[in-house]
Amino acid sequence: MAGIGQHRPQSDPGRPALSVVGGPTSALIRDIIAQFALQEFGHLRAIQNTPLRPPFDPYANDINYLIASYLIPYVGLTGYVGANPNLQSTTAKSLVAGLLGVESGQDAVIRTLLYERASLKVRPYPFTVAEFSTKISNLRNKLGKEGVKDEGLIVAGAEGRISGNVLSADKDSLAYARTPEEVLRIVYGSGQANVTGGFYPRGGNGRIARSYLPS
């Protein structure tokens, strides 16, 4: 049986497969994990092959522009939250605190403006703003592969007592955290930190991002 690392999505046949060192040695476990990997390829293919029709135009109107603005900044926010405990120097901690303060403020403003328009339809699609936000959050959770760390505008909100969710937070109303690997999986749109695409077709330029890519 081919190694797990020898599989690649059929939607990207030109990308070389990455070899994996180590991993399960049991034939049964390798077989099951390989099945899971191929199923994930199918999920990604389904996402790629189900575009909005007509294509989403972020510049069409205020609502579209706000939705487009909501796509990526929140991912960075959760990345800063996740990185902060691992920082060693006070300089780095101070930098991330400053970045996080502004990013969280931006996210709060965008979500508030979207929340105000939650019940409006995003023309010409059959979805409301709230439904769009949920679909975006579900996709980011799926690509991140680490459970729910993203929520739309209408869910079981604060303390599970209200459906409004103007700010996304965990069960203790604390900000969600993501690792660098999770962030890369999402912004690449591939679900893999070592498969570039999405907003970064050539991959990120930072040291951490580059460490996941083949040299």
List descriptors.
215 residues; mainly alpha; 2 domains; 7 helices; 46% helix; globular; disordered N terminus; Pigment-catalase-like; Desiccation-related protein PCC13-62
Question: How would you explain this protein's 3D organization?
Answer:
The protein has 215 residues and is an all-alpha fold. It folds into two domains: 4-48; 62-178, no CATH class. It is 46% helix and 0% strand. It contains seven helices and no strands. α2 packs antiparallel against α4 (90-116), α3 (73-83) packs antiparallel against α4 (90-116) and α5 crosses α6 (180-187). It starts with 26 loop residues before the first helix and ends with a helix. It holds the Pfam family Ferritin_2. This is Desiccation-related protein PCC13-62. InterPro entries: Pigment-catalase-like (IPR052965). It comes from Sesamum angustifolium.
